[in-house]
Amino acid sequence: MAGNYTAPVQVLIDELGRLPGIGPKSAQRIAFHLLKVPTEDATRLAFAITDAKARVRFCERCFNVSEGALCPICNDDARDTSKVCVVEESRDIVAIEKTGEFRGRYHVLLGAMSPLEGIGPEQLKIRELIARIEPEGIEEIILCTNPNTEGEVTAMYLARLLKPIGLTVTRIASGLPVGGDLEYADELTLGRALEGRRTVD
Amino acid sequence: MSGELYRDTGVVLRTYKLRESDRIVVFHTAENGKVRAVAKGVRKTKSKFGARLEPMSHVRLLLYRGRELDIVSQAEAVEPLSPMLSSLDRASQGLAAIEAVDQLSLEREPNPQLYRMLVGVLRTIATTPSTLNVAAFYWKLLANEGMRPELDRCVRCGETEPETPLVAFDLNEGGVLCRSCRSGQAISPGALEVMREILGGRLVTALAREESPTTHEVASLATRALEFHIERRLKAVAMFETH
Ligand SMILES: [Zn+2]
Ligand SMILES: [Zn+2]
To answer: Is B114 within a domain?
Structure first.
């Protein structure tokens, strides 16, 4: 495939091809689409990317996306600091916040364990989670990873790690259909799953 | 052959995210070997596929044959996935098993024996916890690939026990060696005995063994032997070996 197009086009195709869910064919299609659109449109997209990259970073405490050092949730004094909900990605926080069922803080792992892809505990923000327990007086950790194989493996690994520390470790209820992503769950189902969370044994 | 509908039964080896809510699912099937297919809408909570297309799922399939990728039209569970996800040990063993099969399975090349072995090991993992489930499976996979290791006589001079103790195992040579011919790595008499059980029709005896330095030795040798054969590292087994 390489070398079929002039250098700038090939660079664009290669960069697009590195995005999640974009194969070589899609990368090619998007690249030629971008070359066809008016310059302003392409510039706006480029700006949106650089602007978001420059202004948004990860919360120093919970790794939620944030404009400041701490995200709005960590900065909110009204939140219950004894409960922490562990999620895979920031977008899962949005889904859980919509349910209105949870008033504690979060911890974003920035992914899930994927043994088949060699993504293990070291690649996730797990050490950072452990470090929060004592200073923040965390009493309950709710494992809200996706109800699929990777999410379950991550939850079981965390449970094994956290239980000996002596806090309550719970998992969102099995009301959530296995195989789906948390972000696609409707508010009612997700709210019920949170409410019906069970202690991990 | 594009557009033709066909039925098969398979185990999910891998899934890759595709577009908004779809996935590419890789199966090892009973009749068609490795099959790659698109499952539309599978990441949505209300997907008709539910948990049936997660890694380790064993499913009856209706597929559309496509030019590059097939399309999953229907998927029905043959066995429930939940036992595999009921403990970290089961899940990690199951993932280690499917990773190995993913490496050995070839696209559109029927390998029903590999399918039967995979279904068998997943069943064993779900029902019979053993520290040697994965190691025994790896040794049997190698034997099935025609790479059965020589365990009874020195691969160089042909001497046998008990006159000549066999003390080493060499991956390059594919078997054990005596003291004077030795190369590769040391192997304990206990580990050699367990490997003979696994490959000599006494699998149940081997699987009943308690976790010990001997079972660890057999397990790590099995991983190395399979990695040597496929010429790459196995990721899942390494992840759970280290803690
Ligand atoms: Zn935060
Ligand atoms: Zn010899």
So the answer is: no
Residues 115-134, chain A, touching B (beta carbon < 8 A): 115-118, 120
B14 neighbourhood in chain A, CB within 8 Å: 116
Q: What are the Cα distances from residue A98, in Å, to A39, A58, A112, A151? A: 37, 21, 22, 21
CB contact (8 A) between residue A153 and residue B95: yes
Q: B97 to chain A: nearest residue by CA? A: A116
- The conformational region for residue A3 under phi > 0 = left, psi -120 to 50 = alpha, else beta, is left
The DSSP code for A40 is H
Q: Which residue of B has its CA nearest to A116?
A: B236
Q: What domain count does chain B have? A: 2
pLDDT tens sequence across B193-222: 999 999 999 999 999 999 999 999 999 999
Domains of chain A, start order: 7-55 (1.10.8.420), 77-199 (3.40.1360.10)
Per the CB < 8 Å rule, is B18 touching A21?
yes
pTM, whole model, 2 decimals? 0.85
Q: Do the domain assignments include residue B21?
A: yes
Encode pLDDT of A29-74 as tens digits: 999 999 999 999 999 999 999 888 888 899 999 999 998 999 999 9
Q: The domain that contains B36 carries what CATH number?
A: 2.40.50.140
